[in-house]
Design goal:
The complex is a heterotrimer of chains A (360), B (289) and C (325). Chain A is α/β, with parallel strands linked by helices and 360 residues long. Chain A is built from 14 helices and 13 strands. In chain C, strands 1-4 form a two-stranded antiparallel sheet. Chain C has a two-stranded antiparallel ribbon with strand order 2-3. In chain C, helix 7 (172-196) packs across helix 9 and helix 11 runs antiparallel to helix 12. Classes of the chains: A alpha/beta (360), B mainly alpha (289), C mainly alpha (325).
Chain lengths: 360, 289, 325
């Protein structure tokens, strides 16, 4: 090859690569003109809340919202580390995490719930399951679908003779928190051995698998017959199209309750009057005959001190919009994703004061 | 050695020609079969990826940004390009200048030996270890955040040993007389580097760069915890996350939606095509002597 | 003039030290970040297979002077087992294939087809790890799950470990197969290179004595290449040990559950670091991250040792196909 041609090619390659890198970065910077300098509010975290943030993103024009679906654990740590402004999380910060980071708040924004879903081929029954049974499944003490404890809750139903394959999250997950909190409150052995958290010491169960994110659980369950897993109700459409069954769960009052927005609102109402000023509250395993046992409070994790007054005021404005019933918390956004807006008393007494603590 | 051969020759002759010929034919057939098997697997992988990619590719995937569940791949394509570019920025200077040092006869031989040793060791560091290091040190400790710089350095760390090695070899392939003549004519080190080393080894250097790019474009573990991901383009070199194609392949296939799978297929297709082209180009350049 | 020279030489000296600096800094930092875990776990890190992140919502405890989540205990046993078993399976698959391909290229294949064939094998090394993972999930796993593994369990079940419940296609076998695709190019190129160093006259001499191509390959060339073959296999092993993404996608990435048969899901050290780092962020004591750093440290040391040994035995000429993902 001609030396000159080679040199030219080489030069072109290097220039293209380096210039491309620099130019693309420069081009993607927002215009530096003072007019309409929209603040960018970056969000990352909960896979449960991701669909809703995406829906808000397109319809909120007072700031540019960027979203990422990474799991509640990353959402919290990113918000604490300052790599994003809004960390979306299905779990509040643990006491030790909160005391280690006094300048970080968890602000409630809405109420969610979770399905216990199962993929049993050629099976159309809606199973009744209890915290004790589910704990048994995820601890390996109940390892076949036709186990007597499951049959007892479902008399007359023809249960298949096959191993159960429990599927759980591998990432730091608020859904895991919700799920394990429910199990801890309903089953003493689980509380003692495993406990609740975004990541727990999963007991050894032969054949169990993991998934990354709610989507990962759904994908894993789709390809694994006879599996059981916990999935956020925001993914109802995918759960239905995958043909999974959704269980009725036994609540504290011993009633088997279906997963629905009404039953979740009822459950939330049992605990919400007790919500403390810092917003930290667990809604799982509520009393009341119609309460759905896996209800959960959703949070945005934000630093109290933002890096600039512009960001602080944009953030406050956005959060106020998010919890208002004619803004982000209107049924136009929440209904599709099976989310429950906060009662106005909670908003005015707890949420707004927390938002007002944000400074820049 | 000759004794050994004669012994074996005796054994061979003793076993009888027929069996030996059969063994030979069997070996021939089996090894060809294995080769055919490998070729078949390669073709199947390529056909599957290219096929599913081509079947589901749309123009909008190449022209819009996306978030691995909706939209397109433009942010990931540009992001990969930017990250690899950053990586080259960090690895080309040490690659070229470091190689010059190593082949320079005036350099300390012990230092050269240590450099070569460490370079070799660097190739064996698993990519996830580089990624973990990048996260703990670049993203958190140095405060770069998930960024172009953090991802670029992580890729650069991986590319550097290959570049250094290949460029060193290219320099060593330059006939000694050329270098000695240049010294004899009174040229200093800088002139020799720019007038002899670089031009003569330009093919090797370019080939090395293309190879390094082909490797870096397909990396993931270094980038998950240093570049993050971005549903658009990064807005700066620091503290702004970057999208990249391998991430789309990894997360896309994990999503339950068919469209995410399509995005994963198309990303995989783009990657395979680009990397294969780069590998062949890098070989073609050095082949023409 | 002289000053310019001096600066230039200083510059090249500094640049040459970059790889040294980078490796040293990496090793030092990984060690530094591992120390809390080393103090907390001590030797039990190496003797337990459980990875227990403890109770997130109980107050952290202080052990040996470091803070850790209550009830936590980290062990690499399961991951080490997975790494070793998947890599071993990969070597068992790759070695004969690489040897036979090298033999074929060297002895049977016509000269003209050689470059093409070698390029074809090298192409396996260029495929990105995640693309292997993608193909593994979509093509390999279903085939394993529906056809190959049930057949194996039925017909080979007398072999210990070959009889067991097949929960899914993910696991040891899928990982081993995909890893072998990645290391075949490495081992093949080392063996082919060393076959080519056999002196022509010795080869011709043996041929003239009436040896068949198979015998020349099996006895002569192998004899010359013993070191390279072992070295090349070690290099392939080193590559397999550090492989992350493809294994993450097809192994099942499980924790806390020991495999019961070769059909069980598994996990490797590299894949575990990648999949567990995310959940480690939530631990305010930082112990979870320290444990992962310690895992990375062990992985780095093992990879390094295997690679250096391989390089030592095989000679420094080898480079292609080393992408570590």
């Amino acid at each position: 090859m001609e030396r000159k041609t080679l040199a030219v090619i080489a030069l072109v390659v290097v220039v293209v690569v380096v210039v491309g890198a620099v130019a693309a970065v420069e081009l993607s910077k927002p215009p530096s003109t003072p007019k309409a300098a929209k603040v960018t509010l970056s969000e990352s975290g909960s896979t449960l809340l991701y669909p809703v943030f995406n829906a808000w993103k397109g319809n909120y024009s007072n700031a540019t919202i960027t979203t990422l679906s990474t799991g509640s654990g990353t959402g919290i740590s990113s918000a604490i580390a300052g790599t994003v402004i809004i960390g979306a999380s299905d779990a509040f910060m643990s006491p030790s995490l909160a005391s280690a980071n006094p300048g970080v708040m968890n602000i409630p924004i809405m109420i969610s719930y979770q399905y216990i879903a199962y993929n049993i081929p050629n099976f159309n029954f809606k199973l009744n399951l209890s915290g004790n049974v589910i704990a048994g499944i995820f601890m390996g003490t109940i390892n076949n679908w036709n186990n007597s404890l499951i049959q007892q809750l479902n008399p007359g139903v023809a249960l298949p003779n096959h191993s159960i394959i429990p599927i759980h999250r591998s990432d730091g997950s608020g859904d895991t928190f919700m799920f394990t909190s429910f199990l801890s409150k309903s089953n003493g052995t689980w509380a003692q051995k495993v406990g609740a958290g975004t990541n727990v010491n999963w007991p050894s169960v032969a054949g169990s698998l993991t998934g990354n994110g709610n989507s990962g659980i759904i994908t894993q369950m789709t390809t694994t017959p006879y599996s059981i897993g916990y999935i956020a109700a925001t993914y109802e459409a995918q759960v239905n199209s995958a043909g999974f069954g959704i269980a009725n769960l036994e609540n504290q009052d011993g009633q088997f309750v279906g997963a629905s927005v009404q039953n979740v609102s009822i459950a939330a109402q049992q605990y919400l009057p007790l919500i403390p000023k810092n917003g930290t509250i667990a809604l799982q395993y509520a009393p009341g005959k119609d309460s759905y046992p896996i209800a959960d409070m959703e949070y945005v994790i934000v630093r109290q001190n933002q890096s600039s007054p512009a960001i602080a005021s944009a953030l406050k404005e956005f959060l106020n919009w998010a919890v208002s019933s004619d803004g982000g918390s209107s049924s136009k956004y929440l209904t599709e994703f099976n989310l429950v807006p906060l009662p106005s008393s909670v908003v005015s007494e707890v949420v707004i004061p927390l938002i007002n603590k944000i400074t820049g | 050695m000759t004794d050994g051969i004669q012994e074996e020759t005796v054994l061979i002759k003793w076993k009888g020609l027929g069996i030996r010929k059969i063994k030979d034919s069997m070996a021939k057939v089996v090894s060809y079969l294995i080769l055919a098997l490998m070729a078949g697997v390669l073709v199947s992988i390529f056909a599957y990826i290219l096929g599913s990619g081509a079947a589901h590719a749309t123009i909008s995937m190449f022209t819009t940004f996306g978030d691995t569940t909706t939209g397109g791949l433009l942010n990931a394509i540009i992001g990969t390009w930017m990250l690899v570019g950053m990586g080259l920025l960090f690895s080309i200077p040490p690659g070229i200048l470091g190689a010059i040092y190593i082949v320079n006869s005036k350099s300390n031989t012990r230092v050269s030996y240590i450099v070569k040793l460490f370079t070799d060791i660097l190739t064996s560091v698993p990519s996830i270890v580089i990624g973990l290091f990048g996260y703990l040190v670049l993203v958190i400790k140095f405060g770069f955040g998930y960024s172009l710089v953090a991802g670029g350095i992580a890729l650069g760390i991986m590319m550097l040993p290959y570049l250094l090695r290949i460029i060193e070899i290219s320099f060593r392939n330059i006939p000694r007389e050329q270098i000695e003549n240049a010294y004899a004519l009174g040229a200093d080190d800088i002139k020799i580097a720019s007038r002899v080393y670089l031009p003569q080894a330009s093919k090797g250097i370019l080939s090395g760069i293309l190879l390094a790019v082909s490797i870096a474009a397909g990396e993931t573990a270094q980038l998950i915890y240093t570049a993050g991901f971005n549903n658009a383009l990064p807005t700066g070199f620091l503290k702004s996350q970057v999208a990249y194609l391998t991430y789309v392949v990894w997360t896309g296939i994990n999503q339950p939606s068919q469209y995410s799978h399509y995005l994963a297929y198309v990303s995989a297709m783009i990657l395979i095509l680009t990397i294969t082209a780069l590998i062949f180009l890098s070989k073609y350049i050095v082949r023409r002597k | 003039m002289r000053l310019h020279n001096k600066f230039f030489n200083l510059l090249t000296f500094i640049m040459a030290l970059v790889p040294v600096a980078v490796l040293s800094v990496m090793a030092i930092f990984i060690l530094y970040y591992s120390t809390p875990s080393i103090r907390y776990e001590g030797l039990s890190f190496f003797t337990t297979y459980l990875w227990n992140p403890g109770f997130e919502f109980k107050p952290p405890v202080s052990v040996n002077g470091v803070l850790a989540p209550a009830g936590s205990s980290f062990g690499l046993g399961l991951f080490l087992l997975g790494t070793l078993s998947t890599s071993l399976l990969a070597i068992v698959i790759s070695f004969p294939i690489s040897f036979l391909i090298s033999l074929n290229v060297e002895s049977y294949l016509p000269e003209k087809a050689r470059k093409f064939t070698v390029s074809m094998i090298e192409l396996f090394a260029g495929i990105p790890s995640v693309v292997y993972g993608l193909w593994g999930i979509l093509v390999l796993e279903p085939v394993l799950f529906r056809y190959i593994e049930p057949w194996m369990s039925k017909n080979l079940g007398f072999i210990p470990g070959f009889r067991g419940e097949i929960y899914s296609g993910a696991g040891l076998i899928a990982s081993g197969i995909i890893l072998s695709f990645m290391i075949i190019p490495i081992i093949t190129s080392v063996i082919v290179n060393s076959f080519e160093t056999v002196p022509k006259d010795v080869k011709e001499g043996v041929f003239s004595l009436g040896a068949t191509k198979w015998e020349v390959g099996r006895y002569l060339m192998t004899g010359y290449s013993r070191a390279s073959t072992i070295g090349g296999t070690l290099l392939g092993l080193g590559r397999a040990l550090g492989e992350t993404m493809a294994v993450l996608m097809v192994s099942g990435a499980i924790v806390n559950t020991l495999p019961t048969s070769i059909y069980s899901a598994t996990n490797t050290m590299a894949a575990a670091i990648a999949s567990l780092l995310d959940s480690a962020f939530f631990d305010p004591t930082g112990m979870n991250i320290a444990a992962l750093s310690e895992l990375a440290l062990v992985l780095m040391i093992i990879s390094l040792a295997v690679n250096l040994l391989g390089r030592q035995i095989a000679g420094r000429g080898v480079l292609r196909g080393y992408e570590n993902d």
